[in-house]
Design goal:
Elements: H1 3-16, H2 19-33, H3 40-52, H4 56-68, H5 75-87, H6 91-103, H7 113-125, H8 129-141, H9 148-161, H10 167-176, H11 185-197, H12 201-214, H13 221-233, H14 237-249, H15 256-268, H16 272-286, H17 292-304, H18 308-320, H19 327-339, H20 343-353, H21 373-386, H22 388-400
């Protein structure tokens, strides 16, 4: 076997996910002709694959082997290594490796903008803004020119970590680059999102208006959604409706995410009818199917406005429309029943959620969604107080399908254990 054949074999193993087989042949190849004949691009392919498989031990093994064999890594190989470390929560190790590469005169050109951007992304994910800032300053000191992606990554760190006061200075750095790094729609969306996360909606709106006047880049749905979410958090319905009208005028198509934000806002403003109307007209106008998150927000709006019959009818409408409720949906509905003392109905919701007999609701989905542990425990506890026989029957039926109810006791926190784990993965809503 020569290097070309091994490289082909490695690619096939990677594409088929047969990494144990790849590792076996790597050792065989070493015994036959020496791994020093493996090229840097092939090492990069293997490092990337083992990194995606979360096998960081073999990732380091490949890198160290490559260095020991004096195979000079390419920029792509080094990028694969840094990306593998970052994706496996080893951002500190990635930064340390970048510095080692920079300190090696022969490898120094590999310490480029792309690699630094990957490390910044890693520290952003773990909300370590001080390290993000330190890496950015290190880039400037070493005259490694950031590109727009780098600046956007730093901006995202500012937004995530609540450091939006430093955003104007970073924008100025973009302008001072030689040649300048041009802000794009991601740049502006990130700044808007950052101000909204920080609770400074007015600053976000001011920046948004300035951007429309000064920039040739048109605002997109993501930017509008960030502003709408900011309006929802501060219950500024009039401002949100203005933004929706502006989206319509600019022919920006809203999504289910847009609808979920508006439903939350209208529900809090006690305008449930308008929320239903907006979901129906918007989905029909733009030709998309309303998803489970929007339906769950509508359910929550009904419950918060004391419209339990409407909420229960909406559940059956979901089922008829082939939109299977998830665990979050059933938890919201069951909690609403409990909130208004509808214990029998709460038990029926639980039975429907776990696909048990003894309810008259329309059941959807091929797999039980379940109900969150805490909610299930509270329902059973309240049932025991008023309908002990109903509670016992429900607990026994749940036990037969592998669900143990953890009931709250003595005012202590509930034991978060098995209940609800029989369901499908949950999706966030409301």
């Amino acid at each position: 076997m020569d290097e070309v054949l091994f490289a082909s074999l490695a690619e096939v193993c990677v594409r088929c996910g047969s990494l144990d087989l790849l590792w076996k042949h790597l050792k065989e190849f070493d015994n036959i002709i020496g791994v020093h004949n493996v090229s840097a691009p092939t090492y990069g392919t293997m490092i990337k694959a083992f990194g995606q498989a979360r096998d960081i031990h073999r990732v380091w093994g490949l890198w160290n082997q490559m260095m020991a064999r004096k195979v000079k890594p390419t920029a792509v190989t080094a990028g694969c290594m840094i990306e593998a470390l970052v994706n496996n929560r080893q951002s500190d190790e990635a930064w340390e490796l970048v510095n080692k590469i920079y300190e090696d005169d022969e490898l120094r050109p590999l310490a480029n903008t792309v690699i630094y951007s990957s490390v910044i992304k890693g520290f952003t994910a773990s909300k370590q803004y001080k390290k993000v800032s330190a890496i950015y300053e290190e880039m400037k000191a070493r005259k490694i020119r950031p590109n727009t992606i780098t600046f956007n990554t730093v901006l995202n760190a500012m937004a995530t970590c609540g450091m939006m006061g430093e955003a104007p200075e970073l924008l100025e750095d973009m302008r001072k680059c030689d040649p300048p790094a041009e802000p794009d729609v991601v740049t502006y969306s990130t700044i808007v999102k950052g101000y909204c996360i920080a609770g400074n909606l007015d600053a976000a709106l001011r920046f948004f208006e300035e951007t429309k006047k000064r920039s040739k880049i048109a605002a997109d749905e993501v930017m509008y959604n960030s502003l709408l979410d900011g309006c929802a958090k501060q219950q500024r319905l009039d401002q949100a409706l203005k933004l929706i009208e502006e989206m319509r005028q600019n022919k920006i198509v809203p999504s289910n995410f847009t609808l979920s934000i508006l439903v939350k806002l209208l529900g809090r403003a006690r305008q449930v009818d308008q929320a239903f109307e907006m979901v129906e007209t918007t989905s029909k106008e733009h030709g998309f199917v309303v998803n489970v998150q929007v339906y769950t927000c509508l359910l929550q709006a009904c419950i918060n406005n004391r419209q339990m019959r409407r909420a229960l009818a909406l559940h059956d409408e979901m089922a008829n429309n082939s939109c299977a409720p998830d665990q979050k949906t059933y938890t919201v509905l069951a909690s609403g029943c409990l909130r208004y003392g509808m214990l029998d109905m709460a038990a029926k919701v639980v039975r429907c959620a776990f696909h048990l007999k003894g309810h008259d609701m329309i059941q959807a989905g091929s797999w039980p969604a379940g109900v969150e542990t805490g909610c299930l425990g509270e329902i059973v506890t309240e049932l025991r107080k008023r309908h002990a026989a109903v509670a016992e029957e429900l607990v026994n039926d749940l036990r037969q399908c592998g669900v143990t109810v953890a009931e709250p006791s003595s005012g202590k926190h509930r034991n978060q254990r098995q209940a609800g784990q029989a369901g499908r993965p949950t999706t966030s809503a409301c």
